Amino acid sequence: MKNFKIIIASLIMTFNYHIISGQVGINTPAPNQNALLEMFTSNKGLLPPRISLVNITSASPLAQHVKGIIVYNIVNNAFVNEGLYVNNGSQWFRLSTEDIPFGHVKYSVLTSDHSGWYLLNGRSISSLPAPAQTNVASLGFVTTIPDATDRYFKAKTGAEVLGTTGGNSTVTLVQANLPTMTFNGTALSAGSHVHTYTDRGNTSVNAGGAGNNNADDTSGTYTTSTAGNHTHTYTVNTGGSATPVSIDPKHLNLNVFIYLGQ
Question: What SS3 string covers 82-121?
């Protein structure tokens, strides 16, 4: 009996050894030789653990970071979004089909940070999560991220600094901005002079402009009495209110975000 027990124990140990060291198949009799575990199904899926992550740097609700562990996060906040996450031993990374390089910019109707996209509002870089700080520093920003508030995008010249702002939405014209114009006028100002009028004969003619009508039967051209040196003036309308001219075209207001990863 004793020998029989030893043989049975040996067989169990051998059997267990082959199970542990070989491939395991679920719903398949011949698992792939390169896979430790192969599962086969035509109408079911793999359901990973579903947990609530806090942010990408915290291991919670795990006790500590474990390299290679995969979970499905079920919460959405400013730091994480629902989806599959894998741990690299120090933080979480969301498994995504999107391949978005750091520094890409987008417009959105959203109002807060989401899925690795951070609002371009001029905030301090030190206020960002640690991974985002590292990524934004790699783009060349040191103290703050750019502020896109009330700004359009402009491709920079070689001499301009990336991320700086400039320009205005209105402009006030000065005289130098106006087209070149010359206003001309003439007046008789050559000293003592007279004006003439024509008497047509037996016709009332207003010669003085103040109701003085001359009427006789003699026709001819006559002159008024001289009034000494005098001039004539003319007026050109002037004035303005210096109201700024708007150069802001029709537009749709949106928020601007930069991708710094999660």
Answer: CEEEEECCCCEEECCCCCCCCCCEEEECCCCCECCEEECE
